[in-house]
Amino acid sequence: MADATPPLPQSAGYGVIVGLGAAFALGMIWVTHLMKKAFDEDNKATETFVVANRSVGTGLTAAAVISSWLYSTALLGATLLTYKYGLALGVWWGASASIVICLLSYISIEAKRKSPNAHTLLELVKTRYGTTAHILWVVLCLLNNTLVFSAMLLGAATAVASLTGLSVIASTYLLPLGVAIYTYFGGLRATFLTDYIHTFIVMIILVWLTIKIIAAKEIGSIGALYDAVIAADTNNPVEGNYKGSHLTMRSDESLFFGILHVISNIGAVIMDTGFWQKGFSADVAAAVPGYVLGGVASFSVPWTVGTIGGLAAIALEQTPAFPIYPRTMTAEEVSSGLVLPYVVQAVSGKAGAAALLVTIFMACTSIASAQMIATSSIISFDIYGTYINKTPNDKQLIRWSHIGVVATLIFISTLATAFHLGGVDMSWLLYVIGNMINPGVFPTLFTLLWKGQTRLAAIISPIVGMICGISVWLSTAWYYFGEISIASTGATKPNLFGCLVAFFVPLPVTILISLAQPQSFDWSEFNQIKSIKTEHGRAAQLGTDQAEWFTPERVQYMKRMSRWAAFWAIFTIVGHALLWPLAMYGARMVFSKPRNLKFFTAWIVFAYIFLWFTLIVGNFYPLFDGGLKSIWIVIKGKRGVHEGGQAVTGSPDSESSTEEQKVQTKDHAGPAEP
């Protein structure tokens, strides 16, 4: 049996993980220093560290959203599942990303309407429901961030091991190390900036790799890829797919995974305080367009990379160019995420392997920085600042944020190592995560969107949902496989049924309990949440004074943007889930010759066009949306703060805030009327 020899030496792995990580850390520390000088962006102030002074523009928000979905698990997982189940999988994965982000645009603007000074989701829970609910949400959110971060890190570490021979355990500890350093010093603003840099590099590499795969001599054209997949399906048909073909949207496993992943991703995002923080950090004029642009653009990465990489693996596996030829991949290699690394090695050798190594490093570290900020904020705000020191000052909160970053680094790396040694891989975590995180979705949404949810309903419903979801998950695994094991609990149907139950059971539970003893929450109570003042008494520029914030102009503007966000959320659900993959599932069609070869060609070409659109949104739009001006200000060293500590030049990306500047010109105060 031929085993794949890593195309790169271990030194390359150490060079990228340690060397590039150190370079990013030092670079971000330097940029943070320059921004403090140019814009008075003080990373030692909590408002800057946690919510970037609520001034991030549309372009940078969109880039950060795209970066947030450049999971190593998305790149590796979409490819391996396309290899197993066909091209329908990439569409479902892309939909699971775009739908939830466009939904988050609505949540983001609603949060600004009702609680402009909030720093974390958990502050809202504490203010509305009190201590018991707050502790419950601390557990739910930490569980979510822990599982998401671990899955991403484990998948990335396994891929790095296949490319360089570097130990998986060494990778789990070294990959997030540089991230912890620049996150420690730079906070959320550093996260936004590194998200942009990571997105810039990753998108260029992905565009190059996808073109290289099709152009490689072993494939040569879209038509040749089509022929190779058709030939492979003749010998090895896909069980559950229409006519056993990879080239059909009628794929039972893809449908099951699509439903599972859409729901699980909603849970992963709604229960991830990091996504809420990015919403809090966005300028009020940037929240909706930034999230919508980023959400729509994020569809292309799993779709295009998954489709081309997965189908190419089917074609290349039978050629001598494939690293493990003449044997095919084992189930363990596939589930560990090695499909894309093998494909890249086959078509471009060491150069492609090095490019993929950098891509995985960038994708991993981008997510890691957001997860560290989210977890450290929970530790500083919601544990230390709520239960250990109830009157913390700015300096103490920053200290505990730093402690949270370090603690997250150590704990997540250790947990990922434990998963690896225990036989748990990326695919298992990818499927299982929804059983644990979905129960909090509806109670969390109702916290911000429904006045009628009561304290008792908010506490009981997620607990009932989790008990029911885990019970269904384990009992279904026993029913189908006769055992409770890693293999049985990681199968599709047990997780599909468990995730559905965990997601939907809390909905009727919270409604029934709330209606039994009706109450109506006063949204103005969220205004108890205040900005954190620095040692010099200054607080964030926006949202500090309620009278200044809730002007009639701003209230009307936010209402209008809320309607637009709701439209895009509904439009994306209908377009990306119902009218595309679900409708084509019912069509019973295989992309077969001669007519459907043209359809398949158009499918691949459109996937490329969509990927280029994402490249433009993520790489170049932020430069035109205030980025170039901000860079010039930093180069000149122009200070953004003058007399009295009041900002007059704005902050990075402030050009995107034209509408916001308009609504700030009035002095009339008015209460929010969400």
Automatic annotation (TrEMBL):
**Pfam families named among the record's database cross-references:** SSF
* Lipid bilayer topology: Multi-pass membrane protein
Q: Where is the composition biased (Basic and acidic residues)?
A: 659-674
As for subcellular location, the record says:
Membrane
Which key words tag this protein in UniProt? Membrane, Transmembrane, Transmembrane helix
InterPro entries referenced in this protein's UniProt entry, alphabetically: DUR, Na/Glc_symporter_sf, Na/solute_symporter
- Matching Gene3D superfamilies, A to Z? Sodium/glucose cotransporter
Give the start-end ranges of region Disordered. 643-674
Q: Which residues cross the membrane?
A: 12-31, 51-71, 91-109, 135-157, 163-185, 197-215, 255-276, 288-316, 353-379, 400-422, 428-449, 456-475, 495-516, 564-587, 599-621
Q: Which PANTHER family match?
A: ACTIVE TRANSPORTER, PUTATIVE (AFU_ORTHOLOGUE AFUA_1G17570)-RELATED, PTHR46154
Q: Which family does it belong to?
A: Belongs to the sodium:solute symporter (SSF) (TC 2.A.21) family.
Q: What is this protein called?
A: Urea active transporter
